């Protein structure tokens, strides 16, 4: 399996856009978790810089996800989502929990942040698994069959 760079870029854009949608939907919850003082601080900083860096982070996450899916030889949707879950559990959920334990961050903010990453990474994996490079058309047909049967 080769890395499909157009799929990585599209999945990264979707990962990034989902962040805006996610935190837009949960904006009042987010504001409640971080407090008025932090909201005012965030309003004073450069939005352009934050959005650019957020996209770069999405691109890195999705590219590495594509590599992990490649190394795990994940071709079926269910296998790819298992890989995503394990990566999320070990590298996102577990490491971010330390901010709650040692920095006394709000547990609700933790759940909001790691929830976004789980949904965004799962969606990115679906894109990466469905949009396979040309030489893996048989794998693509297998994934499509799984999607249509709900497996």
Instruction: Estimate nothing, just give the exact number of structural domains.
Output: 1
Biggest β-sheet strands, sense, barrel? none
Counted by DSSP, the helix tally is: 7
Nearest-integer average pLDDT: 90
**Which H/E pattern describes the elements?**
HHHHHHH
Helix content: over 70%
- Poorly predicted tracts of residues: none
Gap from first CA to last CA:
22 Å
E-strand count: 0
Rounded radius of gyration (Å):
17 Å
**Inertia-based shape:** elongated
Approximate strand percentage: under 5%
Structural class: mainly alpha
Explain this structure to me?
The protein starts with a helix and ends with a helix. It has helices spanning 5-25, 27-34, 36-44, 47-71, 77-103, 107-130, 137-149. It has one domain (5-149). The protein is mainly α and 151 residues long.
In short:
Helix content is about 85%, strand content about 0%. The protein is mainly α.
């Amino acid at each position: 399996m080769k890395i499909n760079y157009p799929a990585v870029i599209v999945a990264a854009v979707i990962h990034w856009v989902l962040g805006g949608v996610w935190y837009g939907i949960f904006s009042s919850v987010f504001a409640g978790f971080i407090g008025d003082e932090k909201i005012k601080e965030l309003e004073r900083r450069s939005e352009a810089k934050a959005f650019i860096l957020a996209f770069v982070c999405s691109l890195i996450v999705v590219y590495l996800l594509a590599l992990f899916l490649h190394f795990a030889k994940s071709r079926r949707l269910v296998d790819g989502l298992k890989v995503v879950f394990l990566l999320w559990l070990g590298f996102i959920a577990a490491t971010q929990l330390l901010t709650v334990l040692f920095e006394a961050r709000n547990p609700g903010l933790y759940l909001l942040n790691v929830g976004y990453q789980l949904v965004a990474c799962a969606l990115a994996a679906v894109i990466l698994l469905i949009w396979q490079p040309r030489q893996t058309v048989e794998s693509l047909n297998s994934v499509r069959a799984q999607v249509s049967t709900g497996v």
